Amino acid sequence: MARLVYLGTPEVGVPPLRALAAAGHEIVLVVSQPDRRRGRGAELVPAPVKRAATELGLPVSDRVDDVLGLGAELGVVVAFGRLIRPHVLAEVPMVNLHFSLLPRWRGAAPVERALLAGDEVTGVCLMELEEGLDTGPVYECAELPITDDDTLESLRSRLVDVGTEMLVRRLASGRVSLGTPRAQEGEPTYAAKLAPAELRIDWSRPARELARLVRLGSAWTSVGGRRLRVLAAAAEPGGAGPGVADGTAVGTGDGVLRLVRVQPEGKGAMAAEDWARGARLAPGAVLGE
To answer: pTM above the 0.90 mark?
Structure first.
């Protein structure tokens, strides 16, 4: 089996790590982002990959340079969140599992951007890591359809499953030689991390676009000065003005967004119909003001 180092941070990096360990590879170090303060108590909380590595009894660091001098044959990178500097790549060749069909959606938020753009397909690529942002040649890509029912969570889960299988299969022989990668082909697009302002619902946008935003799981608007998270919604034809609510139907720049499930500030998630009955909105009330 191969002697590996593993670099990853969020939850999507956990299944590949566990799968590589289960396959018998020697993982000599796991590198993850430093612990961050979260919650009301502002306690330091380890990243999901660090927690998983600790459970597996693997050594962990938050310093990329610690992979040097370990005799690793290959580094595996999955959603690490930082660029790897050239002097590290010069000693430890690395591959990256990236959740898009490169060169489309290079960058930090490929799954989110694919959903927002209304892409019908996306995928996962195993690529050779180089200094540029997701510019390396690819060893293999797998294509997945994006369904109308896909949320960020469900689509990301499917991509992780496919990518994990690809990674384990390509390393099954224990050899670090994965073959000859091919250069990326096509026009690159970039998947910048979502800014918080992008998650606020702009009711002047078309309903079909807002429905895609809701599928990310964090879209919100305001009602009476308090936040209302919109957890599920559907685009429908209609002609109400932007933000004007008629029960669970809210007007947009083109069509109506039918609220299905919401979470009012300070409360749990609930059916939008239950929220609408309790909210007792005045006729012609406008959301988002």
So the answer is: yes
